[in-house]
Amino acid sequence: MRIVAALGGNALLKSGQKGTAEEQYANIETACRQLVRIAAEHELVITHGNGPQVGRINLQNEAAREETPTLPLDICGAMSQGQIGYMLQQGLSKELSRQGLELDPVTVVTRILVCKDDPTLVSPGKPIGSYFSRKEAEARARDLGEKWIEDKTRGGWRKVVASPRPVWIVEERAIKTLLENRFLVIALGGGGIPVLGSEQGGYQGVEAVVDKDLAGGILADAVGATIFLILTDVPAVYLDYGKPTQRPLGTVSLDEMVSYSREGHFAAGSMGPKVEAAVKFARERGHKTIITSLELALEAIEGRAGTCLAASGCGEA
Ligand code: ADP
Ligand code: MG
């Protein structure tokens, strides 16, 4: 089967970790062991989150402000794709040779087209980066035209950017060509680098972030995947998550998932977009989405773990 696997940002850099190269390589080694097991049996395309990494690139940017010009968010996104892609290639090469598989890992710096009429471009609402004081936030808003909001729970101010919906992957043809030539492709990291079509020709990068699960669904569709595999840090999707009545979902029908979603079981910004991407992939393509943890990935593909959603049911592999 052809599978697109979306790795959560936490799989690569866990919350509470400092973010040293050693820590990240250790996490990546675990992830790559699982990914190569999947690649041994299926045609695999890998995508991944970049929240923790791009946050740190931003911080380095801020800290070095007086020494070297800060770079816009789209370039920071590209840096994170290169960084994570390289580390995954290192981890995958090692594991591929250990498991005796002849596949070449390669990373595609990937742009994702967004729509100029997307409402979030006019009223951005996605907080990114570190927390700042009111004074700094006000100065940045005034001098740079950025939008900042106060986060009262954490007692600081954060920059907010647009989070437009993904429309089309600019590098789609390149990704498919590589896949068809037996490359193990890593693409669309962090949901892709958001760009708008430019009237002068080509594309214009935008100061925005695209949700990696919604973008991953577009990738799964583009390469004709039969399974969109969302690998996160929980074994399944739960109803009443975090409450004493919490219970995991196994195989769910499209209608059931839509009504659970309407009942508010899936938090915005975390499980919400995963479920939304799963529903869209099932409804428009009739294909299967599995949401589970990295550790349970293989069992979930075989139907023995995780939450599975498909328009025609999850029974047949
Ligand atoms: P990733 O980096 O994999 O995208 P996220 O933090 O964005 O990870 O999403 C996974 C998180 O979603 C889980 O760790 C959990 O805390 C949260 N979550 C919210 N609602 C649910 C739910 N209904 N079932 C399971 N997890 C949920
Ligand atoms: Mg997420």
* Secondary structural class: alpha/beta
CATH superfamily of the largest domain: Acetylglutamate kinase-like
Mean pLDDT score, rounded? 94
Quickly count the helices: 10
Adjacency order of strands in the biggest sheet: 3-9-2-1-12-16-17-15
Tally of separate domains? 2
Task: Please describe what this structure looks like.
There is one protein chain. With 317 residues, the chain is of the alpha/beta class. The protein has 2 domains: 2-115 and 166-309, Carbamate kinase, CATH 3.40.1160; 125-161, no CATH class. Helices cover 39% and strands 24% of the residues. It has 10 helices and 17 strands. It has helices at residues 21-41, 51-63, 73-98, 119-122, 134-144, 172-180, 212-222, 254-262, 271-285, 297-301; strands at 2-7, 43-48, 104-108, 111-114, 126-132, 147-151, 156-161, 166-169, 183-187, 193-197, 203-205, 227-232, 238-239, 247-248, 251-252, 288-293, 307-309. Strands 3-9-2-1-12-16-17-15 form an 8-stranded mixed sheet, with helices on both faces. A hairpin with a 4-residue loop joins strand 6 and strand 7. The longest helix has 26 residues, at 73-98. 39% of the residues are buried. The model has no long low-confidence stretch (mean pLDDT 94). It binds adenosine-5'-diphosphate and magnesium ion. The site of adenosine-5'-diphosphate has 15 residues, from loops.
